[in-house]
UniProtKB/TrEMBL annotation:
Lineage: Bacteria, Pseudomonadati, Pseudomonadota, Alphaproteobacteria, Rhodobacterales
The UniProt record lists the keyword Transport: yes
Family to which the UniProt record says this protein belongs: Belongs to the binding-protein-dependent transport system permease family.
Name under which the protein is recorded: ABC transporter permease
Domain ABC transmembrane type-1: 26-222
Subcellular location: Cell membrane
Transport among keywords: yes
UniProt-listed Pfam families: BPD_transp_1
Keyword list, A-Z: Membrane, Transmembrane, Transmembrane helix, Transport
UniProt membrane topology term: Multi-pass membrane protein
CDD domains xrefs: TM_PBP2
Length: 235
């Protein structure tokens, strides 16, 4: 217990000292995860909305697949991206393996199903509520998508925060495609795994504390967004 207290104290001092190596790891983690979330949002928001308002044969099967992909194992995603970006893969000519870009691609594949599935659910509920009003304005189903996305912006922000939380806590996929290279692809989760195995618990704990704080801030943002959405709906 005494050793743990000492390591925790050293971790807190490491955070407060502004250690440049540690904070560069934190910043890279945030840059990769935020970029992946933005890309996933650009694809998943319209895709989920279109899936919600359109009717086509096999739609239920597509919805089931999208929902199932929310639980996609990260190591499977990492292996898939690795095979695509390796020298013998179809995209090997791009030389993206073991770069932050490869990590972003892996995280996009993990976050995209979450954003798409939650967007479909949110927009589907809004479409059921406002369908008659929107049709009375002469709008087609596709034309209602921007209106519904705007109306559900607070709920959709919750979906994006959930996606970001998944991305920033990811370790398996980014380790496979990023390689955990110091000052290049080393992020918080992979550093925690590495430093723990080396016995450098102070750095691992420092990054763990920061990761927990980020998770708490994301959850607080989700709760605040949900509360604001509730107030907006009753206004």
């Amino acid at each position: 217990m005494q050793n743990f207290a000492e390591e925790l104290r050293a971790a807190l001092l490491l955070i407060l000292s502004g250690d440049p190596d540690m904070w560069s790891i934190v910043l890279l983690s945030l840059r990769v995860s935020l970029t992946a979330t933005v890309v996933a949002a650009a694809i998943g928001l319209p895709l989920g909305a279109i899936l919600a308002v359109t009717r086509f044969p096999g739609k239920q099967l597509v919805v089931i697949v999208v929902n199932a992909l929310m639980g996609l194992p990260p190591v499977v995603v990492g292996l898939t991206v690795y095979l695509l970006l390796s020298n013998s893969g179809p995209l090997g000519v791009l030389s993206l393996l073991y770069t932050p870009t490869a990590m972003i691609v892996a995280q996009v594949l993990l976050v995209l199903p979450i954003v798409t599935a939650l967007t479909r659910q949110i927009i589907s509920e809004l479409d059921g509520e406002y369908a008659d009003q929107l049709r009375s304005l002469g709008l087609s189903r596709m034309q209602t998508v921007p209106t519904l996305l705007w109306d559900g912006r607070f709920q959709l922000l919750t979906a994006l925060l959930a996606g970001f939380g998944r991305a920033v806590a990811e370790v398996g996929a980014v380790l496979i495609v990023g390689g955990n290279i110091n000052h290049v692809t080393r992020v918080m989760t992979t550093t925690i795994a590495l430093e723990t195995s080396k016995g450098n618990l102070s750095l691992a704990l420092a990054l763990g504390v920061i990761l927990i704080l980020i998770a708490l801030m994301v959850n607080a943002a989700v709760a605040a967004t949900a509360l604001r959405a509730q107030r907006f709906s009753h206004a």
